[in-house]
Write a structure and sequence with these properties.
Layout (H helix, E strand, L loop, with lengths): L5 H35 L2 H21 L3 H7 L7 H31 L4 H8 L1 H17 L4 H24 L4 H23 L11 H25 L1 H6 L4 H35 L4 H28 L1 H9 L6 H27 L3 H20 L5 H28 L4 H26 L5 H22 L1 H15 L1
Length: 483
């Protein structure tokens, strides 16, 4: 694989490392927050919140309109474009938030959960804030101020969880989760405006630049909406046939899988898109950059999922505490499916950064509904059936997505799939098996976790020493970061 241009590769890779470092802190914060809240709240409460969050998160994806990603993918933008598009996005957010508030009684009636109505009315504020949050984040990202973006996200995450824990400890129930959900974007918006020293100017009529960006945003909107549908539709679907407690168990297991996705794959998109956009006209360099970006996901997110599957029993016991044991097999299955899911989602970087957002929309318009349909086929078998079917759906999605994204970008698809398969067989699978076997040798959740991690580290060291391709991958990524 040919090497990327050193300066641009180093800038992108360092931005990726800073972003990932910030996400590691946020993952740790979220895990601690989940651990504390799971001991203060019941699975039933989480089940109701999971159904409501499915609607609000989908609304956030809709209200973003794809505008932040369109701005990120633009090689040049006028000074007034971000301000003008800010008001377009905000207006749409108000409309969608109002629609959720109006639909809250009907949704509560259909799902047979009266508590959904007040929760959804409060969560209607989330798409209003989410509609403009991405523009503030992008303002810093386009200046390559990745440290500031990561720091703001970390501060908002820590503060929102602290508020939720304080409210839950005071005896509140689902109100604590509502506060956590709404305070996160609110805090981030305020701090980003202060740190970025940017506020939108007065609204103006759309110019030619803004109209062109909105055309691109429509395609990116479709990709975002379809991606969020595949991510958050599962819990509401399960809520139609299962009890709130079963939905809560499934949702907590799913959240442990969504954390690495949301805080690595999604966040890395902010770094990957500007870099891929700059080299989109050179197909050889585009292929080189994307393969290197996928390696970050393979050795990072993929390895994390492999360990999560292997050590599901001690992880659930430590994070959620007693009463959540039924989530262990669900977490195992969802984590295995999360490996191919992460690989498939990185293709969005290629579609957007490679200038083929329209092709990505056409592909996801049928591929994501296919994943949802396959997932729904598991509903008769309850939560476990849904978990298995979801993994099968993403396993089918990944190679099809690579084929479509590579063809649209004009680069070969086979090396992309081969890279990931090779790492799965030579690194991820052996590491997971050894970690599981080592953890099985002892009793007690902490000894199981520690011995499992030791076994994983030994396996990784052996792979690095014995396999030249693994050494080449790792040293290549380190060299990019160090310049």
């Amino acid at each position: 694989m040919s090497g990327p241009e050193p300066s641009l590769a180093t800038s992108g890779a360092r931005g990726a490392v800073v972003t990932l470092a910030g996400q590691v802190v946020m993952v740790a914060t979220r895990v601690v927050g989940l651990a504390v809240l799971a001991r203060l709240l019941t699975p039933e409460i989480y089940g109701v919140m999971a159904i409501a969050t499915g609607f609000s998160t989908f609304a956030i994806a809709v209200t973003a309109l794809g505008i932040p990603m369109a701005l990120a993918g633009a090689t040049e933008i006028s000074r007034r474009a971000p301000s003008t598009l800010f008001y377009v996005s905000l207006a749409f957010g108000v409309v969608v938030g109002g629609a959720i508030a109006l639909a809250a009684p009907l949704i509560a009636q259909l799902w047979g959960e009266p508590q959904l109505e007040p929760v959804l009315r409060w969560l209607a504020l989330a798409p209003v804030m989410g509609s403009v949050l991405g523009i503030f984040q992008l303002h810093l990202a386009r200046q390559l101020r990745f440290v500031a973006v990561a720091a703001v996200g970390t501060f908002a995450t820590v503060t929102s969880f602290a508020l939720a824990i304080a409210v839950a400890a005071g005896g509140a129930g689902i109100e604590a989760l509502v506060i956590q959900t709404l305070s996160l974007p609110a805090i981030e918006l305020v701090v980003l405006a202060i740190v970025g020293r940017w506020l939108p100017g007065l609204p103006r009529r759309l110019g030619a630049d803004e109209r062109a960006l909105l055309r691109d945003a429509r395609h990116l909107l479709g990709i975002n909406v379809l991606g969020q549908t595949g991510r958050y539709v599962t819990a509401p679907m399960l809520g139609l046939v299962a009890t709130p407690a079963q939905v809560g168990l499934f949702d907590r297991a799913q959240q442990l899988v969504l954390l690495p996705l949301g805080l690595t794959i999604d966040q890395m998109k902010r770094v990957a898109l500007p870099v891929l956009t700059r080299v989109r006209d050179d197909r050889e360099r585009l292929a080189s950059y994307y393969r290197r970006a996928q390696q970050l996901a393979t050795y990072g997110t993929g390895l994390l999922f492999a360990l999560l599957a292997a050590l599901a029993e001690p992880v659930v016991a430590i994070v959620f505490g007693p009463g959540w044991e039924a989530a262990v097999p669900l977490l195992r299955v969802l984590a295995i499916g999360g490996i191919v899911r992460a690989f498939g989602l990185t293709v969005q970087w290629l579609h957007m950064g490679g200038g083929s957002a329209r092709a990505g929309l056409r592909f996801n318009a049928w591929a994501i509904p296919l994943v949802v349909a396959i997932t729904a086929a598991g509903l008769p078998w309850g939560a476990m059936g849904v978990a298995v079917a979801n993994g099968v759906g993403w396993l089918m999605y990944w190679p099809l997505a690579v084929r479509d994204g590579a063809r649209a970008a004009g680069i070969p698809a086979a090396p992309i799939v081969a890279d990931a398969v090779r790492v799965i067989l030579t690194v991820l699978a052996p590491t997971a098996v050894v970690a599981w076997a080592a953890a099985s040798l002892v009793t007690g959740v902490w000894p199981m976790l520690l011995l499992g991690l030791v076994g994983a580290m030994v396996t990784l060291a052996v792979a690095f020493a014995a396999l030249p391709r693994v050494r080449s991958d790792v040293t290549g990524l380190v060299a990019m970061v160090r310049g």
